C-alpha cells in the first residue's frame, strides 16, 4: 500500500502565456508595443488548491519556465528554500557577468543574464507556491512572510511621455491623449491623482533632452507643491548632465533614478550631489550590492520581486538595505493584478519601506482577475483573504492567451525599439550617454 500524497504536494502546473494591451508609452529604448507578453502560472496541489503566479512572458522566460514547471511536480509548495538550486539544476547554472558595460547592454531591466532570467522565472513559481500554501492554510501570503506591518501600501503615479495612439493605429485605443510637454505631463498627473489618489509622482525620462524633462518636473512641482517627485532617465545621461539636473531640481526631487548607467558612474554622480540616487538597473541582484554600497553609489534600491527571485528574497534585500542605511522602495514593469497583489503582500511585511512603490497597473486596462485591484488614496489595501486574495477569471485568461496564439506580428518578445521603428524606420536605441 502506498501513502496518499501530501495535500501540499504539487500535482499540476499550467503555464499560460498571454499578450496584454499596453499604451504607447515612451522610454529610452523606444515605445511600448501595443501588446506586452506576460506569463500566468496556475499551480494545483494534490489537495486541489490552485496558486497563482505572474512573471515576464517573453520567449526566453517561457523556455526556462517549462522545464522548471515539470521539475516542480511532486515537490511541496512549502519547499521554497530549495527553489534556487532546483532552478539552477534544471535551467543551467551559467555564471552571471556584471560590470558597467554589461549594464548598458542590458536595456531597461539591467543586465539580462541567464541567472537573472532564471530568478525572474523562479519568482513567478515562488509566488504561486505561497498563494497555494496560503489558500490551503486559510492564511494571507503576508502571514506566511511573518505578518503585515501596515494595512495599506502606498504607490506613486507613474507618468510617461506618450503618444495618443500606437503607430499605424495598432492595438487598443484609450482616451488619455498625448503627453509630450510639461502641460501634458501635468494633465496626466492630475488625472492619475484624481482617479487613484496618488500623492507622489515619477516621470519616466531619457526621452527628450534633459532641459525639457527638467521643465516638466518643474511644472509638476508647481502643480503639486511639496509632493515627492522623481525622474528616471534609465541611464541616458552623462555624469556631468546628471549632476547638472540634480543641482537644478535639488529642491523638489525625492530622488533621481538611474541618471547614468552602472555602479561606477552612479558613484561619481552621487559624490557630487545631495539628491539621493535610486536604482533598479545597477543593483538588481545580491551580487551587485557590495560594490554599490561600498562606493556609496545608491541611496535607494528599487526592489522588484520578479528580478530578485521572489517575495522572500525581497525581505532579505530589505534586511541588507536596513543594515547599511540604504533606502528601499519598489520598481515595476508592465504587470497585472497577480503581481500587484504579490508586491502589496510583501511590501506590507517590510519595515523599512520609506517611499511610495512604483506600479504600471493604471496603464493596464486588461487583467486576468475577476475583479481589478483597487487603488484608493494612492494605496492598495493589504488583504487578509487566504493566499494573494485574488481570483483568476478563466475566460479573460483564455482571451488574452488566444491573442498570444494568434500573434504573428513579433509581439511575443517585448521590443520597444521595433515598435518605435513603425513610426521612425531609422530608429536605433541611442548609445549612452545620450546627453
Ligand atoms: O515601462 O517603459 C517602461 C519602464 O521604463 C520600465 O521598462 C522600467 O523597467 O519602470 C522601469 C524603471 O523604473 O526603470
Ligand atoms: Mg527605473
From TrEMBL:
InterPro entries associated with the record: DgoD-like, Enolase-like_C_sf, Enolase-like_N, Enolase_C-like, Mandelate_racemase_C, Mandelate_racemase_N_dom
SUPFAM superfamilies in UniProt: Enolase C-terminal domain-like (SSF51604), Enolase N-terminal domain-like (SSF54826)
Enzyme class (EC, first level): lyase
Domain Mandelate racemase/muconate lactonizing enzyme C-terminal per the UniProt entry, residue ranges: 182-276
EC number in record: 4.2.1.40
Catalytic activity: D-glucarate = 5-dehydro-4-deoxy-D-glucarate + H2O
Superkingdom of source: Bacteria
A family per Pfam: MR_MLE_N
Native source organism of the sequence: Streptomyces endophytica
Name assigned to this protein: glucarate dehydratase
Functional pathway: Carbohydrate acid metabolism; D-glucarate degradation; 2,5-dioxopentanoate from D-glucarate: step 1/2
PANTHER family reported for this sequence: D-GALACTONATE DEHYDRATASE-RELATED, GLUCARATE DEHYDRATASE
